[in-house]
Amino acid sequence: MSDAAKPRLLRALAGETLDRPPVWFMRQAGRSLPEYRELRTKAPDFIAFCHNPQMAAEATLQPMRRFPLDAAIVFADILLLPKALGQKVWFEAGEGPRLGELPALSVMEAEIEASTGRLSEIGETLTRVRAELEPERALIGFAGAPWTVATYMIEGRGSDRSGARTYAYQNPEALDHLLDILVESTARYLVMQAKAGAQALKLFESWAEGLAEDVFERIVIRPHIAIIEKVRAAGVDTPFIGFPRGAGALVDNYAAAVPVQAVALDTQASAVQGQRIQASGKAIQGALDNLLLRAGGSAMDARIDALIEQWGKGPYIFNLGHGVLPDTPIEHIERAVRRVTGT
Amino acid sequence: MSDAAKPRLLRALAGETLDRPPVWFMRQAGRSLPEYRELRTKAPDFIAFCHNPQMAAEATLQPMRRFPLDAAIVFADILLLPKALGQKVWFEAGEGPRLGELPALSVMEAEIEASTGRLSEIGETLTRVRAELEPERALIGFAGAPWTVATYMIEGRGSDRSGARTYAYQNPEALDHLLDILVESTARYLVMQAKAGAQALKLFESWAEGLAEDVFERIVIRPHIAIIEKVRAAGVDTPFIGFPRGAGALVDNYAAAVPVQAVALDTQASAVQGQRIQASGKAIQGALDNLLLRAGGSAMDARIDALIEQWGKGPYIFNLGHGVLPDTPIEHIERAVRRVTGT
After folding, report:
1. Does domain B8-341 have CATH number 3.20.20.210?
2. ipTM of this complex prediction, to 2 decimal places
3. Does B291 contact A at CB distance below 8 Å?
4. What separation in angstroms does the CA of A224 have from each of A81, A148, B205?
5. What is the pTM of this model?
């Protein structure tokens, strides 16, 4: 495809510096949109909703109709994978995810091959969305990264992760085994997503914060490398975005070691840290504060301009540092996207 | 005083590289010690306990009797200052601090001068401890840094700080005014502590995480610089340790801008980040994972050795990345301190 027709997001992921950065927002689909809240009334069970390709495709496309965004991200959840591996997962309204007891590792290991098939609806969602989306807008697939998914699997819910970090110290072999199971099943899941229409793949390491450097190397960097190598070994060359959220100075270690095409930065990334990563040949993504998006106004405009000024001279994808908050006014999202796209 | 007699902690703060680093632990006094839990039964109200020089001195000294630590830190709390400024502060058993409504800024401003006098017992505690402590062991005074204290004052309790961060975006002038009040009262409080016997002063910015770079410059870096300048203007040359916990890559900005003698690093600091700060002429402190201290064993020993190997070639103070957890076995603390001191 000619460069002009190639989606802006994919050009940035290929290392191009563009006249203006592509823009999309984490959680651009979901509770901040009234049409999403309306749609969910038809399928109140969140997991069933994610496994319904018609509904999930509609949720994926809703923000694309409202805003001039450069990319859609498939509507799904990082906890669909542990469910596909045999752990019980459900959502308590207003409280977030709950998981049943961690199955025996040998039992889950035997389910790896079958798990990808149990996630086939997510592939269907991608295929539907790709068929409807304009060619200049890219479609992103994703998975939770192994450590982050493991924290939920071990603790049974969202938490401060200290239980999972303690488990990492006290049961290193068991944790490594669990991470290996997640590496293999995640790689297969992402290969399936790429074949179904995902043009970029994002690994969400939402809980990379607070880890000592040696632990970070072992439970974040090593599994990310292993996933990407497995995806490449399957013949899939789809670009990767890695998001080691909260990793602070260790984001530098991550960027140096993991063969992603872009490193997604969180809110507290420094200008020079992002520039260092760009200078090393990778694209970066980020990192408007989601609280500032919610607050809106001229302070938001000024920060958007500052981010583009500091990072727009290299390959750069505009995004938030964290997901859109449910109570973010739609006009602020609209205003931010238009500020970046100049429309 | 001759170099040999000078406390090891102060030698490291003066930029010396020592044969082995001085060691102390955040929250070395407190609930991990049975003698502390026993002492508290005599004064169950936590704030009254902090304001009782005899009891607070005893709590400060308890870990010094048990372990060959190189420094004591005065037993107190960062929320004594807002109380001295007129905000209601109390502790709910098992739930942590609670604060009443934020007083009008003009009212608190008028209380700055009186606030230092209301904290005189903390000075008495320092004087008592200094009189009892061996000369080769240093005594540290401390205060909460303005932004961290402000988050409690605004939100009324410990939290994820998103309310305070939103306040920072929506009421920038009011926040700056509140920070100015805290800068002035904190500087006076620390001058008083130095005159009462503190040989080093630590600024705890416990909630530096998740801040965008421009916000971090405004609400963390600027107030820290202002406090130190005010303390120096009062003729006090006591060394400062700054602890921007959770600031990630922005710790580099902090180290470059704030005239502290040492930067305390949290658990996720990278080896090269610490070395960069040492190369710039400052000491560093940190950063054993408190969960690993609780877990203990040979993995803890190996990590202690690795930290000393990576940072001991420059001015370095051994510590945790966060405070000792209440359920940490005493034998693990003992083992860690002996590992560092070689005793």
Report:
1. yes
2. 0.94
3. yes
4. 16, 12, 32
5. 0.95
